[in-house]
Design brief:
Number of helices: 7
Helix content: 25-40%
Strand order of the largest sheet: 1-2-3-4-5-6
Radius of gyration: 16 Å
Structural class: alpha/beta
CATH superfamily: Ribonuclease Z/Hydroxyacylglutathione hydrolase-like
Number of domains: 1
Amino acid sequence: MKVKQLKLGPMDNFSYLVWDEDTKDAAVLDPAWQPEKLLAAVKSEGLKLHCVLLTHGHPDHINAVEAVSVAPGLPVYLHEADYFMLEHRPAGLKTVADGEQVQAGSLKLGVLHTPGHTPGSVCYTAPGAVFTGDTLFIGECGRVDLPGSSPEALYDSFVRLAALPDDAAVYPGHSYNGDTSTIGVQKEYNLYLKLARQGRRADFLKAVL
């Protein structure tokens, strides 16, 4: 599997292209702000785009969905709990649920429901990688002071993330404090993931509020 990380727009958002190196079957994650750069990368890499994967429904992560959905009926996956955020539902909108696998041709990504930042936040997992959206940043966690946010839910989500393999690469939704890391490094240096790993719920809730 190959990953291309693109920093786009005024809020240092990350969009991702993920593909099977042999077949070029690909998915785009959280397309935002500058669809022309995403489509140029799809073309330059010779990719076959099979679907759009959304980590959550905030506008700064989805505002280029229609522009990259050049194929009619291209599936757009989002957890149903975040549908209320959509001003317009994409024609190919499909829901994802915890534990499912999304298939983009020969490429498969797992779905880990990680509410907290939003009720429908998910992380997408692949061998050796996890795409964390606005749930987990490098050294930080997602905001929990927005409509639909829940510090308690975020704690439970961080407990789940702390159980992932240490060597899993972390690909976050924004360039805050860094662009990539690993779960193992974040367990040691990310206060929030450390507290969740240690089962210190009360301290976690104090830290995020």
